[in-house]
Amino acid sequence: MDFKNLLYGLGFLLFSYLMYRFLLKNEKPSSRETNWQGIPLPNYIGLWGCVIIGIMAGIILLFKSLPL
Known about the structure:
Elements: H1 3-24, H2 41-65
């Protein structure tokens, strides 16, 4: 088992979870419905993209760390 990839994978997953938990949970992008309060739409989309890519990278590194 490759512990370096395992730790990197867990780190990516933890980072993605913390980004979701503290930056995106219960937030909506600014729009007319929210009276232009909230995260601007490009930033909102970018944060979701970072979370999704971080989760994918974490899962890939976890699978890569397994012995074959």
